[in-house]
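== Sequence, structure tokens ==
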Amino acid sequence: MEILLFSVAFLVSAFLAGVMGFAIQRGATCTVAAMDEVVSKHRFQRLSSMLEASLWVVGGLLIAQSLNLLGKMPSGYAVSYSTVVGGMLLGLGAFVNRACVFGAIARLGSGEWAYVVTPVGFYVGCLSFGYVFGAPSQAKLPYGSPVLQASPWVALLFVAFMLWRLGRPLFGARSDTAAPSLLLRLRHALTMRIWSAHAATTVIGIAFFFMLLLVGAWAYTDVLAEAARGMANNIIARGLLLLALFVGALLGGWTAGRFRSTRVSVAQLLKCFLGGLLMGWGRLLIPGGNDGRILVGMPLLWPYAWVAFLTMCMSIGAALLAQQSLAELVAKRGA
């Protein structure tokens, strides 16, 4: 019976991992793309979408905790210089790679095959971390997440928010006199809105939450980091979930019409490898990768996760501004 339950849980989790990959291709979860939108367009749509994905996980955690369905959650860590340096390395690595760990999945799903090297670089970064920085020494916090100590009434507030957020596309006010039926609105929401950038990011948060209940805290960068350090448990099962994530991204790129098989150059391979290497170092310094931090650390309101995310965003933004200034200077000299 236990084997049957485990098999069902794993199959559902593999499906959810595929959904996450599919939605990553359609969503706005790349921190580099989000900061590029801030720098070049002065808009925060992608950043707000990423924060809403964290909010959905928070709500799910509150509901699961009130129903006693939540297992053991990851511990928090003290904020230190390692947190800031790790965030900077993650940001610089993502800038060099031209995509964070989420964005690398999306680009791979679009046929940009050079990004196959990004996880390889990430793995090598985790493997070489001890030789460069020594053994990681982050101190775990002696207390639990404040989210898990919240009153059950807070979960009811999230249920109200959830009903409003999901119901607004279906029951929102419309300006035209001949409003479509509820059935047509539901069909439109499922076929169109759910794969808009904002809604797809929400799908990622919801899918990740259910995976959290079924198989625990799972992030593909955690699988690579633990494998590099010889600490991975259930490596075959978690590797299959990683495969499902990639397959979902490929399917998402193909159905979105974004799949374009591109030629791979040596320069691209070097950039992706170096970017992955830097992100691997940053992941162990914080500790935690961008995917796990946004979908686990930040929803649990761990300060180190928010500090690392802010540092990563500032590093990417500074690098983009420097690149923009340099391009303008070169253009002026060439004029």
